[in-house]
Amino acid sequence: MLKSIYNHFITPLTSRKLSAAILGNVIIGIGVAGLRYSTLGNDPYSASTMAISDGLGMGLGNYQALLNLILFTVQLIWGRKYIGIGSIINFVGLGYMVQFSYYVMTLVLPDSTLFSFPLKLVVLFIALLLTAYGLSMYQLADLGVAPFDYLSLGMTEHFPTSYSVNRVITDGTCVAIILIAVFTGFIPWENAHLGIGTVCCAVGFGPFIGLFNKFNKNWIR
Fold first, then answer.
1. Using an 8 Å Cβ cutoff, are 6 and 70 in contact?
2. Which of 30, 65, 127, 214 keeps 20 to 30 A from 101, CA to CA?
3. How far apart are CA 119 and CA 16, in angstroms?
4. What end-to-end distance do the CA atoms of the chain give, in Å?
5. Residue 86: strand, helix, or coil
6. Cβ proximity of 34 and 134 under 8 Å
7. Angle, CA 144 vertex, CA 170 and CA 19 arms, to 5°
8. Could you say which residues of the chain have pLDDT below 50?
9. What is the pLDDT of residues 57-73, one digit of tens each?
10. 177-201 tens-digit pLDDT
11. From CA 127, how far away is CA 38, in angstroms rounded?
């Protein structure tokens, strides 16, 4: 048992992979906070956690940790092979990194709600690039996937639908949760965190991650 755990968690570790997993999550946290700072919308999962945590009056880090605990239970039952050090780093730290980064941004940077639309687009683009770069590092480390990311992978293994379809389903579910929360009065629309940024993330992450992978794989692997 102990040997199996050692082989699964410790054997794949290298200093470069561990650094990529940790630094990648830090960069993702800054990028996601930047998307929120742009006020033009976040990726579906981040938007849903921000929206619901706002509605509950709970800190994003605490809410995301609680949600990840539930999703991690599903992953622990059906997707143990996708669990690694990287999963734990993402599980424990990402929500707090986003919360801290956004707090610092609002503390030291101008009020982004007063920005012109073109300037908001610039902030959105920079944040999208940062998030994609962090995701590239985190994924190339290959030390386990986040609980939410496992859902679409697990669905692909257990259902006849493709990964692309299953990812659309999981992301679409996040958007649906937000819309239900808005229409039921649980949160106001301004706390939905949906917008053009959500669309940009949906169409932009894939190409930019692929571009960054060409650089990152040279030093991570």
1. no
2. 214
3. 36
4. 28
5. helix
6. no
7. 120
8. 1-3, 5-6
9. 999 999 999 999 999 99
10. 999 999 999 999 999 999 999 999 9
11. 8
